[in-house]
Write a structure and sequence with these properties.
By secondary structure, this protein is of the alpha/beta class. 40% of the residues lie in helices and 22% in strands. It folds into two domains: 117 residues, Rossmann fold (3-Layer(aba) Sandwich), CATH 3.40.50.2300; 96 residues, Winged helix-like DNA-binding domain superfamily/Winged helix DNA-binding domain (Arc Repressor Mutant, subunit A). The strands form three sheets. The chain has a five-stranded parallel beta sheet, with helices on both faces. A four-stranded antiparallel beta sheet has the order 6-7-8-9, covered by helices on one side. A three-stranded antiparallel beta sheet has the order 10-12-11. The longest helix is centred in the middle third of the chain and has 15 residues. The chain is elongated and about 65 Å long. The mean pLDDT is 87.
């Protein structure tokens, strides 16, 4: 699984290390720079998925750093600053910052914003493929090897939900929420019925291990054999 790399450019050691700690606790890989020049150098030399950038920095301030980053990259940037005036906020956004947080801030909120910005900037996925099964999400078609398989809307949604998280167990309740929606009040066993029909269509050899595995007492997972 890919670990997103975040560059934190902040001159205050305690703040930089606190931000790094919370990001790493959530599975991110963190690169740190204590001043603007090192921030620019790391942004140029390392592949990162997001930059957390303080506005008030030694050697090069955050605005100059952001300008340098934008000359070569559209990597998402969240700016941090003790300045709360609207003019500073607008200036950062006009230069290409994706979000803005004033100090003091909650590290947990910053992590939530990092995740939200990354979700917004992810390229749309139009195809899922594993275990000989391919889902064309744009055309809403399913292929097993080279054979197209006709799935109902519900079956397609089930398979997509499972293939998006290969190896992860999804409970029946989670699948009901994701595929049927919050307003569905049916029995969780509804999922079992649709999984059975789905298997009949995408698993040509019933004697072989299931692509859609049952985890007894929990739910289902997609296992690409």
């Amino acid at each position: 699984m890919r670990r997103d790399r975040v560059l934190v450019v902040e001159d205050e050691d305690a703040i930089r290390e606190l931000v790094a700690f919370h990001l790493e606790s959530e599975g991110f890989t963190v690169l740190q720079a204590p001043d603007g020049e090192q921030g620019v150098a790391l942004a140029r030399s390392e592949e990162v998925q997001l930059v957390v950038l303080d506005l008030m920095l030694p050697k090069l301030d955050g605005v100059a750093v952001l300008r340098e980053i934008r000359r070569q990259s559209r990597v998402p940037v969240i700016m941090l600053t003790a300045r709360t005036e609207e003019a500073d906020r607008v200036r950062g956004l006009e230069l290409g910052a994706d979000d803005y947080m004033g100090k003091p801030f909650s590290p947990r909120e910053l992590v939530a914003r990092v995740k939200a910005v990354l979700r917004r900037t992810e390229p749309p996925i139009d195809r899922l493929s594993a275990g000989g099964v391919t889902l064309d999400l744009t055309a809403h078609r399913c292929y097993v090897e080279d054979r197209e398989v006709s799935l109902t809307l519900t079956e397609f949604g089930l398979l997509q939900s499972l293939m998006e998280r290969p190896g992860q167990v999804l409970t029946r309740e989670v699948l009901l929420e994701k595929v049927w929606g919050y307003d569905f009040y049916g029995d969780a066993r509804t999922v079992d019925v649709h999984v059975r029909h789905l298997r009949e269509k995408v698993e040509a050899e019933p004697s072989q291990p299931h692509l859609v595995e049952t985890v007894r007492g929990v739910g289902y997972r997609f296992s690409a054999r």
